[in-house]
Amino acid sequence: MIRKYFDVVLAMVLFIYCSSCSGSNTINHVEKVQEKAGTSIHSPEERTKVAIAKIVKFVKSNKGKKVGDGECWALAHEAFRAAGIKQRDRPGVRVWGRLVDWKKESVQPGDILELRSAVFPYFRTGEYHTSVIVSEGNGGKFKTLEQNIYGKKYVVRNKYDLKTLSKGSVFVYRFEYK
């Protein structure tokens, strides 16, 4: 009961403080204060936008570098960790959020592409392959950053046209706070 009251009072103080300030430094300061307090006044939608921005920033800042053990999934996994997202580990299953129907809705930067034994005209993946989408795209066309592809265990840029998939499966996931 006291903890709930404290959280409400802290949120009100932060709101009043934010209202009296301006600029992006205020947002960073408020996030730091909230992080220390273990509370947040952001809506799930705002928290999702912040997390997605951190995912994209992480993968872009690691272009040309080996992330984790260099396996494809390690890039997305470490990007989620950098964004403060806790994954539920389920051996053998790579689910990164809500399944996106890429044929009906556009993919967004920060979405995760999972391919299963995929064959495209210009390359093929192994049994499982994970990429992080870094450009918006409609109709299955977009750019990614990924690793452990083309024999490279470091982050490289790639582009996809999912309509050219001749064999295998495609899944696009979008992380969202609820």
Note down, in words, how this protein is organized.
By secondary structure, this protein is an alpha+beta fold. The protein folds into 2 domains: 2-37; 44-174, endopeptidase fold (from Nostoc punctiforme), CATH 3.90.1720.60. 34% of the residues lie in helices and 22% in strands. It contains 4 helices and 7 strands, in the order H-H-H-H-E-E-E-E-E-E-E. It has helices at residues 2-19, 24-37, 44-61, 72-82, and strands spanning 98-100, 112-120, 123-124, 129-133, 141-146, 156-161, 167-174. Strands 1, 2, 3, 4, 5, 6 and 7 form a 7-stranded antiparallel sheet that branches. A hairpin with a 2-residue loop joins strand 2 and strand 3. The longest helix is centred in the N-terminal third of the chain and has 18 residues, at 2-19. The protein starts with a helix and ends with a strand. Mean pLDDT is 82; it is low at 3-27.
